[in-house]
Amino acid sequence: MSSREFIQHTTVNAAPATAQVGDEYFNTTTNKLYKNLIVSGTTVSYNEIPILSQPVVITNSTSAISTSTGALTVAGGVGITGNLYVGGSVVGNVPGGWVYLSTVTVSGATTADIETTFSSTYDNYVIVASGFYFPSGGLIHVNLKIGGSYQSAGYYYAGMYNTTTATGFGVNNTAQIALGQVNVHTQAAYTANLVMYVYNAPSTSIYKSISYTGQFWNTATAFYNINGAGSYVNDTSALTGVRFSSSGGGTMVGTFRLYGIKNS
Fold it and tell me: Which of 54, 154, 190, 229 could cross-link 217 (Cys pair, CB 3.0–4.6 Å)?
């Protein structure tokens, strides 16, 4: 017979008078668990067994766990998703390697400026652009905010766009980075969507580059896949913003989300 078969479990308000070594009882008054470790004649010696606190269930709220001083905050999601803040600074994000930073939603503006927040926290970033189009038409243009200003010269870019056949393009020393060489559709049902990577944003010694992949409609029967890359080469100052606009200068509609990529 195993020793486990001798263990007895009791729920009482005081320790039982007799017991075997290893017996346990739960005190309903103190709400504590005790285990018999010593038997000396009729004297039974029980010791409290520490019980871990119940796990915290984080609900869907802006600040599911917080303190008045901001020492600990878990915010932004269901379960344990979202950023983990200690002392007001982001120290982690669950799950995955992308850390959500901000969303820019435009409707009727001529530019979408993604700026909150490029910093030294992350070397590289991702922008997810979804559901965007230009009511007046135009190519997708991108300008980078380098050294505190959006630059309008010194860009190099190359890429591919295709429907049934691929077409390459490339331009040197121009005023912006163009994503594709045909206009985006003008109607909301035919939106463009893309993912863009931004590299070495906080560096002051490396020229800033981006790469992207995505899709858009030109007409109701002309669907394009696009991918490519571009770089700004007039200054190595830190990058603090990315601007999307239409080549025609008209308004735009869309949503742009910025994520930092964890360095480790």
Answer: 190
- 232-258 pLDDT per residue, tens: 999 999 999 999 999 999 999 999 999
By residue range, what is the domain housing residue 79?
Answer: 53-95
Q: What's the maximum distance between 2 C-alpha atoms anywhere in the chain?
A: 95
Cα distance between residue 248 and residue 140, in whole Å: 9
Cα→Cα distances 259→18, 104, 125, 156, Å: 63, 12, 6, 24
Burial class (CB within 10 angstroms; exposed 0-12, middle 13-18, buried 19+) of 148: exposed
Q: Please check whether residues 69 and 138 belong to one and the same domain.
A: no
CATH of the domain at 223: 2.60.120
- The tokens for 126 are 């991702």
Is there a single domain that holds both residue 87 and residue 136?
no
What's the total number of domains in the chain? Answer: 3
Tell me the backbone φ, ψ of residue 201, rounded to 5 degrees.
Answer: -55, -45
- 154-158, long-range: CB within 8 Å, 24+ apart, which pairs? 154/232, 154/233, 154/234, 154/235, 155/230, 155/231, 155/232, 155/233, 156/230, 156/231, 156/233, 157/228, 157/229, 157/230, 157/231, 158/228, 158/229, 158/230
CB neighbours (10 Å) of residue 133? 22
CA distance 178 to 176: 6
20 and 59 share one domain: no
- Are 79 and 181 found together in one domain? no
State the pLDDT at residue 31: 75
User: What's the pTM?
Assistant: 0.67
Here the tokens at position 17 are 């008078």
Span 116-145, pLDDT tens digits: 999 999 999 999 999 999 999 999 999 999
